[in-house]
Amino acid sequence: MNDRQKASQVPAAPVEGESGSRRSIPSIHALVESLEAMGWLRRVSRAVIVEAAREAVQRFRESAAAVRSLDARLVEERLLHEIAVQLEREERLPLARAINATGILLHTGLGRAPLAEAAVDALADVAGGYAPVELDLETGGRGKRRHIVERLLMRLTGCEAAVVVNNNAAALLLVLATLARGRRVIVSRGELIEIGGSFRLPEGIESGGAVLREVGTTNKTRLGDYERAIDETAGALLKAHASNYRIEGFTAAVDIAELAELGRSRGLPVIHDIGSGVLNAEQAALLPAGEPDARSSIEAGADIVLFSGDKLLGGPQCGLIIGRRDLIDAIDANPLMRALRVDKQTLAALAATLQIHQDLGRVQRELPVWRALSASLDHLRSRAGVLVEQLGVVDGIAEVHVVPSTAYLGGGSVPAQAIDSIAVQITPEDLSAGEVARRLRNGSNTVIARVHDEALWCDLRTVFDDEDERLVEAIREAIGPEAA
């Protein structure tokens, strides 16, 4: 048994029917010496051990157990166990990798799109050293960080220029602050949405220093509504993707080509916020339902197009602004740009992701979100069958089955889009499904799963193939007798 196992396997002591007194509580010094002897000093600092010991003793003094008579040896064992558990938590990184078994591909709570291996390698390469973020290697003079990805975005979308900020909400704020500060931005009422994190489009417009001008009705907006709203105070026309909001039935909306033509005729910039980061119509055709794409919007005449990097683009968190060169130059020169710009790691990961997007085959093979989207039901069912065999022999599991499931794109882009999937359904023997889910969230291998119909569901569309072994181990740890 190694030092790590010895340090974490101090048994918890019972508290009922024991003999002793409050004086049986060992001193902080004695507890710290015992923990150091177990090898904890090689894993965490002495200050952390002392703090954990003090907190454990204080909790024990305030507990009902301290009032009852307790045996000194058992008190010490109980305290050492609690301290070891606390030190195990302290030793973990505050943010570590988790297994997503929810079936939501772009899960905002889990960081949305996982990066491709090439993007992770590119990020790690620049993070561990220096990188020419704002250095022109040809001249040796000052360069612009936007040029790192601008050429790729021009090639992929047909835009004249591009710039990158830290998220799509920041992109909207910066564009409006540059092009429409103090002027009216004309938007359809049906597009005045609220997305994740309570970000509301009207408030975003106001934060950019512009004035909202609503046109049309919730379900119907026509070109004439925009035309009648244009006066000397107008600064821009904005079309926003409705995201996870849908109106069906008696509806009408103005497409981006019509709006762009109106903007040209009146000398107003047309801004299209497409949200999810689909780059072209070829990619959009692979999705369960149509999504606006960047190239089509540029070709339709939009002056500025905004989208996220960490949704269907499959890259790091960022907001991309593409469009006319004169407008992009003005946006890049805005003093707010310095506050909203991205760092070298984001640019490196984004550049690697955009390189993958030059080949649709690579997109489906290498970008985790697109690979998950294209996984066949037969493949998921085959994996699920292996997992059921492995979990069927675990003590504490009453039943485990392969079941059909429904996954979702999620991420505030197209969460209502359902995708057929396969899940492993687990019914615990003695524990509730909710308790098992809690233990999985807090285990050494963090797993986020669904609870449905008093059973635990692990949807395999969002579990990577190489995570299956870790998933089984995590469930065994959470549900087995030793977990109690």
Task: Describe the protein in words.
The chain has 484 residues and is of the alpha/beta class. It has 20 helices and 16 strands. Strand 5 and strand 6 (199-200) form a beta hairpin.
Kindly list the characteristics that best describe this protein:
Aspartate Aminotransferase, domain 1, five-stranded mixed β-sheet, Aspartate Aminotransferase, domain 2, seven-stranded mixed β-sheet, 484 residues
CATH topology of the largest domain: Aspartate Aminotransferase, domain 2
* Largest sheet composition: 7 strands, mixed
Please tally the β strands and state the result. Answer: 16
* Rg calc: 28 Å
Overall tally of domains? 3
- Beta-strand portion reads 15-25%
Please state how the strands of the largest beta sheet are arranged side by side.
Answer: 3-11-10-9-8-4-7
Residue ranges: pLDDT <50 for 5 or more in a row? 1-21
Distance N to C terminus: 21 Å
CATH architecture of the largest domain: 3-Layer(aba) Sandwich
Helix tally equals 20
CATH superfamily of the largest domain: Type I PLP-dependent aspartate aminotransferase-like (Major domain)
> What structural class should be given to the helix and strand makeup?
alpha/beta
What's the average pLDDT?
88
Quickly name the level 1 CATH class of the largest domain: Alpha Beta
Based on Cα principal axes, name the global outline: globular
Fraction in helix: 40-55%
